[in-house]
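Justification of computing resources. Each target in the renewal requires a structure prediction run like the one illustrated here; the chain below, 105 residues long, is used simply to show the kind of job we budget for.
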Amino acid sequence: MVLLDNDGFLLALTKMFQNNRSSGSVILTLKKYDGRTTRKSPSVPADNLCLIRATDSKKKLSTIVSNKEVTKFQMSYASLLRGNMDSLKKHDKSKERKERKRKDM
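Resulting structure tokens:
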């Protein structure tokens, strides 16, 4: 897994979305991060951190966002997601309705 700075992560995420536009998927996860690298070392975090991971079938990316950089990162992240969510497939509900009617009869 590659740990990048915030701007590098957003650039690599844009490339990942472009590579998976026609087929494939990108999985994003967010979790609270306390700064520990091993389980044995109990430490009190100085500030709140967020670990963001992105993966497709070939590549893994991650970044750590501090509470001071959250607003700037969130604005960039939201605009990136809005720009790359246009190739989603519409869910066809007509098949589900027909199946429900068959079950009801």
